[in-house]
Amino acid sequence: MNIAILGAPGCVGRNLIKKLLETPDYTVTASYRVQEEIASDIHDDRLVWKKVNLLDPLSAGQFLSDADVLIYLIHSLGAKHFEELDIQLANAAGTAAKKAGLKKIIYLGGIVPEDREASPHLTSRVKTGQALASHGIPVAEVRASILLETCSASYLIVYFLARRLPVMITPLWLNSLCAPIALTDAASCLAALVQKEIRGHEIFEIGSEVIRYRDLLSLCGKAIRGVRNIIIPVPFFAIHLSSLWIQLITGVPNIVGVALAEGLKTNTIPSRNRFREVTGRDPIPVQDVLKRLAQEMRKKNS
Question: How many CB atoms lie under 10 A from the CB of residue 254?
Fold first, then answer.
């Protein structure tokens, strides 16, 4: 089976490629836009990197010509008008996948709140899934909250805040709930869905244990220095102020910080966690993931 991955050079894509190559019967076609995006640390005869311009129908068709399944990981969060671009790219992928006769599309999106309006970032994730499914191909949409890995922008925000601010004043909305999950677990779920029969547009919400965002920060601090951070929530933090603060402390660009901070104002927890159903096991506990990642960050910075 040939699995095509759009968005392959990113954090999720690189981890997913390694996971898929553990199955001897899979070949992987991974997308790139510029030569520098090709992962130099992944070498396998069953992995082919192909340059693709998704907005060029000929290029998109050539990329998907030999594929059975498409895994869609593109997210335009750093772009100025990312919502419009996300939909445009998803429709281009759906059109090309339909013409190529693909069996299914697997897409990684985000968990959206049930009781409140979602942020533009999370709304865009939902609309991307809908656009992919509008072309008549079965779509398995995996929705996750915060992905924990040293290459994940969400984790790096948590890590650098926890590391650099043992005592911090935070927005009151960090009392919102989330369900973090190891990126390796998310990759395992995506890989497992390659063999699962999908009918229509099916949603798979996943996550580890449910905790508050402020507790995630505190647990990350404990993993780093052995002592939890002291966190004092206050009600007067605006989103723009919070994103500037995130950029100053963590180095994550302001446009990304705004989008992620808006998502923190609502609960992002699975209404029905399907991780065990898909993978046959429970996700790695959050504290264990944070300990491993803190050790890896220590090695990187030593």
Answer: 14
